[in-house]
Amino acid sequence: MVLLAAAVCTKSGKPILSRQFVEMTRTRIECLLAAFPKLMGTGKQHTFVETDSVRYVYQPLDRLYMVLLTTKNSNILEDLETLRLFSRVIPEYCRTMDEGEISEHCFDLLFAFDEIVALGYRENVNLTQIRTFTEMDSHEERVFRAVRETQEREAKAEMKRKAKELQQARRDAERSGKKIPAYGGYGGGSTASSAAIIKDNYEPEKPRVAPAPTRPSGPNKALKLGSKGKEVDNFVDKLKSEGENIVTAAAGRKQSDASKALPPPINTESVHLKVEEKVSLSCGRDGGLQSMEVLGVITLRVSDDKNSRIRLHIANNDKKGAQLQTHPNVDKKLFSSESVIGLKNVEKSFPLNNDVGVLKWRLQTTDESLIPLTINCWPSESSTGCDVNIEYELQDDGLELKDVAVAIPLPSGVGAPVIGDVDGEYRHDSRRNILEWLLPVIDAGNRSGSMEFSIAGQASNFFPIAVSFLSTNNFCDIQVVKVTPVDGDGSVRFSTETSFVADKYEIL
How far apart are CA 242 and CA 469, in angstroms? Predict the structure, then answer.
């Protein structure tokens, strides 16, 4: 076969997208497509029409047409097979078959068309190969990135270790060789001899005086390290003068880092507490809780030496059956009788500028009434595909879940799903074959919702479903209500940071 062109046009013959595989002028292709609607007879069901010079092989796409222009001596069976492949490629990049969506993804479609036909002849490729070729996935690139990320993590870990060593050495130097009390499991220090060794090897940093720059006496090519950078800057300036929008790598890096960085806690006091909980849950697709585990911890950080000898008053309002465990250096009798966390040795103090876990709890259950958020997925198979209805319901009205994302796997090679009614927003990731249902907030006023979509596939293709969320409410209702000094009455100002996140939340 000789394929002249592939085009997407309206029912009136207006071209939206056209790819010519042989030498053809724009006027010629516009005239051929303008004549195409006039050649189709009314009331007849054909997939091709012919003129004296070309053959039109077409397929309706809602309000548009996918049209192939071929020579009259081409094989009509091969033409129809090629047309079906072109029609399956378009839903991979476009959610809806309208003019705006086609225009928005025109370059993606052109690249995919070039993988199907080369110089007018059909290539022996399928939809999966086209997706792989257009993504330009490289195993070597993935290996290189993995190695680089590993090196970066090792460098960061080494940097943190060095920073801790320098910080410890600076503290020991400030203490001028005084004996340091050991904190045992808290890691505050070991013995005076180790502090003395660090002190002998450590010298306070002296202010460095930058030497005055000297001009070289003769020409030296080794000093021209910035010449290439100047040429690049000049080239960028020329592009900017021509009206191009240039974004430098450093600016893009700063912007991405700023977007990923979380804002620091507001009004952080010298005594700061973190109440963190993580839930791991597995439910069956037909209902029933298989396993659920909630792990919680209260972490203490003291940044002022004056408030290092303190006690934490705990309010345990948990009615779900969580099992509590204190740190080995915490007075267990005091905690069991008064719900107060304090060190066994009252003369000792909590370490400064270190996150110390003072209380942990664990909840394991198969009670379905304790599920914070239930997800029900109902796929119904039909002759044309599968209609999927998925819904959520918040069972604990005291929780407020934010940034909820429900990831639903989709079968590969069938295009984008057709979305019906939906509460919230959705996003289709064609590369990972995942449909994400996004809900900004789920609370008592928005405790249930649903989404419907249709796609080719079977009921087993839509599992397992993964759920992620975060909340600033506590699940087990264990909080620090008061902080008091060991010596004397009164209270110590403190700040609290509470988080409840989904570690592994799946419907299998």
Answer: 46
Q: Which two tokens stand for residue 49?
A: 């029409």
What's the predicted TM-score (pTM) here?
A: 0.50
Q: What is the pLDDT of residues 221-265, one digit of tens each?
A: 444 444 445 555 666 566 556 555 554 444 444 443 433 334 444
Contacts of 46 (CB under 8 A, 6+ apart): 40
Alpha carbon separation from 278 to 297, 344, 361, 374, 469 (Å, rounded): 9, 29, 11, 17, 10
Residue with tokens 């303008």: 34
> Would you put residue 41 in left (φ > 0), alpha (ψ -120 to 50) or beta?
beta
CB proximity list for 377: less than 8 A, separation 6 or greater: 285, 388, 389, 390, 408, 462, 463, 465, 507
Q: Is the peptide bond before 464 cis (omega within 30 degrees of 0)?
A: yes
Pairing of strands 495-507, 271-283: parallel
Cα angle for residues 43, 46, 52 (degrees, 5° grid):
110
What's 491's DSSP letter?
A: -
Sequential DSSP letters for 171-197: HHHHTTT------GGG-S---HHHHHH
